[in-house]
Amino acid sequence: MRYLAPYQTGLWLAEYLNIRCQLCAVYRSLPQSQLSQSHSLLNPSLSSQHSFFTNIRKQFNQRFSSGFLCARCHHSIKWLPKPFTVDIASGMTLDIQAATYYDYPMRQAIRAFKHHEDMTKLPLLLHALRQMPRPHGCHQNNSVIVAMSTTNQRLIKRGFDPVSILAAHLSKHWDIPLWQDVKRTDDTVSQQGLTRAERLSNLNNAFTLIEPAPVKRLILFDDVATTGASLQALGRAAVLLSQSMSIVPSIATSKSHGDYYLYAYALAHGSHS
Question: Which of 11, 48, 132, 147 is the most exposed place for a label (fewest CB within 10 A)?
Fold first, then answer.
């Protein structure tokens, strides 16, 4: 029998057995319209037995796919802030879209998950991931998700790769495969506490694409984009590879019809205050 990893077991329990809001632990309640439908279904004269079970199944599916937060907690968080732009090459920019701001409760949840392997915070982070719409025109046959890679030293020290776990769930949510042929060198230090200039200098030549991507659209993903320096460096690595192969790169917001498209997403960015 194949056993689930601890975080997978926790997610399964949160998804299918735990009906409490992952933020405030208040029981979810069905919308009034659904409650009315439930009462009408209890009256056999209003519907057949087949439609009864069909509607019950729909209600369960809606409940389990609605997310991990109650409506009050969901609306208390500012979702999808305006994208910000970074330069990746001469005349080329990259728009970075975050799911939300790096404020409470996302800041605390990301830190607990990332630095203390607190898997109880993962449902909240997955709820945030589900707020990001799939890039227009991207699907499983023409796109891949490129997760921000970590160094071997950091992976050994931490014992797991939090960004890869998040990217795997984003891949499932968007139905777009992961592409992991990106290597990060071991001579870079943590980006935390560095200025923007120091971050850029620290990440010079930090990423290497082992081989060309199998598709034209690359969706870059990181957990936190403070200045966007990591995504910027990863985008530059993709551009350099495309130029070495005589591929004309273009950005998702560009009007040109190039052969290479870059998108960038992050779980959180900046501060709302």
Answer: 48
Q: What are phi and psi of 200, to 5 degrees?
A: -65, -45
Nearest to 107 by CA among 77, 84, 143, 80: 77
With 0-12 / 13-18 / 19 or more C-beta atoms within 10 angstroms meaning exposed / middle / buried, residue 53 is: exposed
Residues 199-209, mean pLDDT to the nearest whole number: 65
Q: Which residue has the tokens 């949840």?
A: 109
Tabulate helix, strand, coil % of the chain (nearest 5): 40, 20, 40
pTM comes to 0.74
Q: What is the model's pLDDT at position 35?
A: 33
**Number of CB atoms found within 10 A of residue 213's CB:** 19
Question: For residue 249, with 0-12 CB atoms within 10 Å meaning exposed, 13-18 middle and 19 or more buried, which class applies?
Answer: buried
Which residue type does 66 have?
S
Q: From the CB of residue 23, how many other CB atoms can be counted at a distance below 10 Å? A: 19
DSSP strands (E only) in 3-141: 84-89, 92-101
CA distance linking residue 128 with residue 130, whole number of Å: 5
